[in-house]
Structures are given as C-alpha cells and as structure tokens.
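User: tokens in, sequence out, please.
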C-alpha cells in the first residue's frame, strides 16, 4: 500500500499530510502533527481517551482511518483553550479535581465541551450520558461530574 495525500483542518489550521490511508487518525495526530494531548488508552474505541471532534461529532480517533477525514474539520484538546484562556470546563477540572493522572482528561474535557456547545444547560443525566463513552481508572467519576456541573454553573453567572 502506498501513501496518499490527506488534507484536513485541525483546530482551525489547514494541514496536508502524506500517510498510509488506513493509518489511525490518533497516530497521525500524535506522531505526524505532534498533537500529543489526544491519548491512547485501549486502542479499541472503548475508553474515550483518544476522543476528538470531527465535523462536529465526537469520535474515537483510534478507530478512524485518516483517509476518512480528508476534507474534514478536526478539533483536538489543543483547540479547546483560547490561547492562554482556559475553557470553563478545563478551569473547572483544575479547580475541582476532575483531572487525575491525565490519560482520560482530554477525552472527558472534549466530551463535556461538546455537550455544552450543544446544550448549555444540561441536566446531571445529560452530563452522565455525554461522558458515558469515557472511562476513568482514577477518580470514581464524582470529581469529573462535579467539575462539569461547576463549569455549567460558572458559565451562567
């Protein structure tokens, strides 16, 4: 199999890479583009550590062949903050202990940001549903849920 040109935007910037079409989006982001905020947890689409947003939909980048994102817009954890200004979800994770070892944090934050962009006033059930595709082995989830609830509260002050 030969390499192909694949073009897409990542965090608003246009990119063209020459890669094997079946390379995982996760590997291209981490190895070719040095965007290492996206983590590999299970490599099977079960844990959510590799979550990114592709064309407005959250996906597990370990399951996406890079050829599928040709022409797409991708948002990684590196695209959540606005320069030095953290997103309310990121700030809440820091202030309320939602981030522990850091493996699940990028996926959790992206899932929460995605939820808040679609539903600025989610219920606790909405939050639990939005984060259901993300596994954490450190916190027992309560600090993560609390962090998202605090981000919602702070956004409406």
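Assistant: Sequence out:
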């Amino acid at each position: 199999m030969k390499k192909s040109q694949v073009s897409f935007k990542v965090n608003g910037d246009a990119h063209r890479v020459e890669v094997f079409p079946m390379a995982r989006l996760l590997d291209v982001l981490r190895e070719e583009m040095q965007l290492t905020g996206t983590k590999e947890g299970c490599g099977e689409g079960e844990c959510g550590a590799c979550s990114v947003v592709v064309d407005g939909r959250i996906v597990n980048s370990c399951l996406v062949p890079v050829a599928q994102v040709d022409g797409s817009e991708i948002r990684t954890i590196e695209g959540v903050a606005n320069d030095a200004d953290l997103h309310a979800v990121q700030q809440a994770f820091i202030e309320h202990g939602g981030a522990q070892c850091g493996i699940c944090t990028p996926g959790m934050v992206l899932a929460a940001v995605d939820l808040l962009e679609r539903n600025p006033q989610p219920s606790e059930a909405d939050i639990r549903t939005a984060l259901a595709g993300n596994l954490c082995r450190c916190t027992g989830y309560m600090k993560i849920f609390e962090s998202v609830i605090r981000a919602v509260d702070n956004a409406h002050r």
